[in-house]
Amino acid sequence: MATWNIDTSHSEVGFWVRHLMVTKVRGQFKQWQGSMTIDGDDLSTAKIRAEVQIDSIDTREAKRDGHLKSPDFFDAANHATMRFESSALALKGDRGTLAGTLTIRGVSKPVTFEVTALGRAKDPWGGQRWAFEASTVINRKDFGLNWNQALEAGGVLVGDEVHIDVQAQLVAA
User: What does the alpha-carbon distance between residue 170 and residue 173 come to, in Å, rounded to a whole number?
Assistant: First the structure.
């Protein structure tokens, strides 16, 4: 089994959610780590784990970030991390799905990411790299992130669907 570690300086965990029912608010988590263990080059054997530090959320608005860390949303004081652990990676060519368990705020739910394997490359220092993109949509309320505010004209302030996008570059350990 070989281990590949996520190079977080060349990777990103981003998200977006509807605001006022019409626009998108984007954000990312700046501190996270993860790895993939694999038997040879057979991606069907891959086991992927990732852990995100909730306190590293960044939506480019400090007051909103503080609210997202509060008990209304992530409750970072009691649930400092968000975790993903894969159960199956299935690719046909360079596209496929990554199934696993996502844990947010102590609630674990199955999720499936759409995945694109972007390829492998050797870096200028002799390291081997492997790159992937993955995306999924979750309902935040499934994970206990229930806070919202009704709008005077109808609708709500924060959408329920959260779109998660991951750009991951892994380096052979």
Answer: 9
Residue 63's Cα: distance from chain center in Å? Answer: 22
Rounded to whole angstroms, the Cα distance separating 153 from 97 reads: 39
pTM of the complete model: 0.95
Whole-angstrom Cα distance, residue 160 to residue 146?
8
Model confidence pLDDT, tens digit, residues 31-80:
999 999 999 889 999 999 999 999 999 999 999 999 999 999 999 999 99
**Residue 65: in which H helix or E strand, if any?**
helix 62-69
CA distances from 37 to 106, 113, 126, 163, 171 (A): 25, 18, 20, 26, 11
Ramachandran bin of 154, using left for φ above 0, alpha for ψ from -120 to 50, beta for the remaining angles: left
Closest among 115, 107, 104 to 36, alpha carbons compared: 115
Let me know: does 116 contact 133? Beta carbons within 8 Å: yes
By the 8 A CB rule, do 51 and 34 touch? yes
SS3 at position 79 = coil
Tell me, what amino acid is at 155?
Answer: G
- Radius of gyration of the chain from Cα atoms? 17
